[in-house]
């Protein structure tokens, strides 16, 4: 499947990549602004500069570079791009990992608790903390607490500003203390007694691991979905004169995590923060379609709204198809085959959930003879000729395609609480806006009347063409 090609950097991108000083850089920007492309171009230039210095100084140690992504799908995609910086000899060590793989290698851990296992261990201890229906919210809250604070500082949760978790359900200081003293203690003790490790433990182990090698150049993509403890682990393995770049947009945060730069030991002053404002991926019509999903969300310092005025091309309005699921699929594929050249253009079918939720689309693609590949959780980017990919919205973070299809947007796959400011609803808004923002040329979204997601009600009818099937 095709990936991004080489591009000519713009003046605002050149200003960032021209800075080859050691230290931290933070690249912020909305979807489509070229954050990842800019960081990878910087990687290539930094590698070249460091290799020249290595040769001048006659150093024997190789230049060590690390690129970290949040999920496996993005890792496979970024590897296809980042390998252009590899020299092919032993003067450069280029590691490209998800955080999970990188930290497992450091800590020597092979088995990590999945979310379902963690939830099963926590559920018996949540009965006295919340009300019925809030178990998933409380499990996310516990992940938020454990990921943000070191084990000896968990009580900071009671005093720190609670950011990144919405305003509902409300969680009082009494309930916060109850979480700390009840489920969190019980869960921690059970893990210890059974010799189990979860993803936060993995970050802590990576932070405590003596550095076998320190990295000279580091790129962290989708930083907004890293926890504070994961960030601390990365910082623990930097060389003294490192060049480290964090790429992020808080408006695209999909997980119950948060950190402030200062609390992980980074001073985010004006000299290291760069903001990309131009939208190079989306048409104005696509950016305009996504914007209402984010308009009501609380602003964050590292977030950026999609700006349709910063798009170079107007484009055609997205389509919203309304009808039975099978008809949505048929209509979308008809349009795709009629208007796209799948020999040179890419398309993604994105859904809120994976597995069997793609079955009917798989059958439809096979019946039409349209080659496709699976992208969700694939650690290697597909290298075949298939230019249609099936992917969950979560795994699509950081990717881009010419065309995006999202049939079957139902409430069943996008559940959330009933209150205004609900944290689950806010995550879903970000997720759908992010998914829309993967598209360069066209977007098609569909739902069945009476079963539609409440997210549909947030869209502005003036920004799309409705097709009743």
Overview of this protein structure:
It is a single chain. The protein is an alpha/beta fold and 469 residues long. The chain has three domains: 11-108 and 209-276, Rossmann fold (3-Layer(aba) Sandwich); 115-196; 284-468, P-loop containing nucleotide triphosphate hydrolases (Rossmann fold, 3-Layer(aba) Sandwich), CATH 3.40.50. Helix content is 35%, strand content 16%. It has a seven-stranded parallel sheet with strand order 9-10-8-11-12-7-13, with helices on one face. The chain has a six-stranded parallel sheet with strand order 3-2-4-5-1-6. β11, α14 (423-436) and β12 (439-447) form a beta-alpha-beta unit. The two termini are 31 Å apart. The model has no long low-confidence stretch (mean pLDDT 87).
Structure keywords:
469 residues, alpha/beta, Rossmann fold, 3 domains, 7-stranded parallel beta sheet, 6-stranded parallel beta sheet, 14 helices, 13 strands, 35% helix, globular
What spatial form do the alpha-carbon principal axes imply? globular
What is the CATH superfamily of the largest domain?
Answer: P-loop containing nucleotide triphosphate hydrolases
The major pleated sheet works out as:
7 strands, parallel
Share of β-strand residues: 15-25%
Return the CATH architecture of the largest domain.
Answer: 3-Layer(aba) Sandwich
Structural class: alpha/beta
Give the integer mean of the pLDDT values. 87
Tally of domains? 3
Spell out the helices and strands N to C: HEHEHEHHHHHHEHEEHEHEHEEEHEE
**Low-confidence regions:** none
CATH fold descriptor of the largest domain: Rossmann fold
The helix content, as a percent range, equals 25-40%
Distance between the termini: 31 Å
Quick one: how many beta strands? 13
């Amino acid at each position: 499947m095709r990936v991004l090609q080489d591009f000519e950097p713009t003046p605002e991108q050149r200003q960032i990549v021209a800075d080859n000083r050691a230290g931290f850089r933070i690249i912020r920007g909305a979807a489509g602004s070229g954050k990842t492309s800019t960081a990878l171009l910087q990687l290539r230039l930094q590698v070249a500069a460091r290799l020249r210095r290595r040769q001048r100084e006659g150093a024997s140690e190789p230049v060590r570079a690390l690129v970290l992504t949040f999920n496996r799908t993005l890792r496979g995609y970024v590897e296809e791009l980042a390998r252009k910086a590899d020299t092919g000899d032993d003067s450069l060590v280029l590691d490209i990992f998800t955080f999970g793989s990188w930290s497992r290698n450091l800590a020597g851990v092979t088995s990590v608790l999945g979310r379902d296992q963690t939830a099963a261990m926590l559920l018996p201890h949540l009965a006295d903390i919340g009300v019925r229906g809030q178990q998933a919210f409380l499990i996310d809250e516990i992940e938020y607490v454990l990921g943000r604070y070191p084990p000896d500082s968990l009580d900071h949760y009671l005093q720190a500003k609670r950011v990144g978790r919405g305003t509902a359900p409300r969680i009082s200081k009494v309930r916060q203390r109850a979480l700390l003293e009840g489920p969190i203690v019980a869960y921690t003790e059970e893990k210890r007694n059974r010799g189990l490790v979860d993803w936060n433990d993995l970050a802590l182990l990576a932070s405590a691991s003596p550095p076998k090698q320190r990295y000279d150049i580091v790129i962290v993509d989708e930083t907004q979905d890293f926890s504070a403890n994961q960030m601390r682990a990365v910082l623990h393995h930097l060389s003294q004169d490192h060049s480290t770049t964090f790429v992020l947009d808080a408006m695209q945060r999909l997980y119950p995590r948060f950190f402030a730069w200062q609390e992980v030991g980074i001073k985010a002053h004006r000299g290291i923060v760069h903001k990309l404002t131009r939208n190079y991926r989306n048409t104005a019509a696509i950016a305009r379609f996504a914007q209402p999903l984010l308009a009501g969300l609380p602003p964050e310092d590292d977030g950026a709204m999609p700006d349709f005025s910063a798009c170079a091309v107007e484009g055609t309005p997205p389509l919203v198809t309304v009808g039975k699921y099978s008809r949505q699929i048929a209509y979308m594929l008809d349009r795709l085959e009629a208007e796209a050249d799948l020999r040179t253009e890419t398309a993604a079918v994105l859904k809120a959930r994976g597995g069997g939720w793609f079955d009917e689309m798989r059958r439809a693609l096979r019946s039409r003879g349209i080659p496709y590949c699976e992208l969700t959780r694939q650690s290697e980017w597909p290298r075949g000729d298939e230019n249609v990919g099936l992917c969950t919205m979560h795994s699509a973070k950081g990717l881009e395609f010419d065309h995006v299809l999202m049939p079957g947007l139902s409430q069943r796959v996008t559940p959330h609480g009933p209150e205004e400011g609900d944290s689950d609803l806010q995550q879903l808004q970000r997720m759908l806006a992010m998914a829309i923002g993967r598209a360069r040329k066209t977007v098609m979204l569909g739902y069945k009347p009476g079963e539609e997601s409440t997210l549909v009600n947030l869209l502005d009818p003036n920004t799309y063409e409705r097709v009743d099937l």
